[in-house]
Amino acid sequence: MKTIRDEKCRDQLIARLNNLKPDTKASWGNMNVEQMLSHLVQAGDLPFVTSTGDHSNIFSRTLLKPLVLYVLPIPKEVKTSADMDQQQDGRTPLGFEIDKANFIEAIHRLATLPENHDCLNHPFFGKMSAKEWCLMAHKHTDHHFRQFGV
Which residues contact 7 (CB under 8 A, 6 or more apart)? Predict the structure, then answer.
């Protein structure tokens, strides 16, 4: 499984990030590139900072979480919650270059956590270990980078 804990995987994501341009267009979805970067920065803060409500349920915590983490790709056009949607209540973009730097900082912060670090709950999947957060961060970032063709 690809994870941001693996330095090679992290470096590959950063190389893809550096292929983004302020005018890169999405292949699907409604976000522009600055909103996507802000969304990834906000997602990278979730293990540390409560910025969303708990949208989990028994189904998402027990069945969907392992499927999404270990089996299925994240499908296109999955709607996120309003508090993670930059066109609604999500984190306001701070600008392309600033959020690129913030994203790199966020993935390094998460990637270097000890595996036994007590992370905050995921808003949809509930309790996740640092290892699971790093798997999810890679999968989520890859999903959005594919959305923007990098």
Answer: 111
CB 18 within 8 A of CB 11: no
HEC sequence for the chain: CCCCCCHHHHHHHHHHHCCCCCCCCCCCCCCCHHHHHHHHHHHHHCCCCCCCCCCCCHHHHHHHHHHHHHCCCCCCCCCCCHHHCCCCCCCCCCCHHHHHHHHHHHHHHHHCCCCCCCCCCECCCECCCHHHHHHHHHHHHHHHHHHCCC
- pLDDT by residue for the chain (150 residues), tens only, comes to 999 999 999 999 999 999 999 999 999 999 999 999 999 999 999 999 877 778 889 999 999 999 999 999 998 988 888 888 999 999 999 999 999 999 999 999 999 999 889 999 999 999 999 999 999 999 999 999 999 999
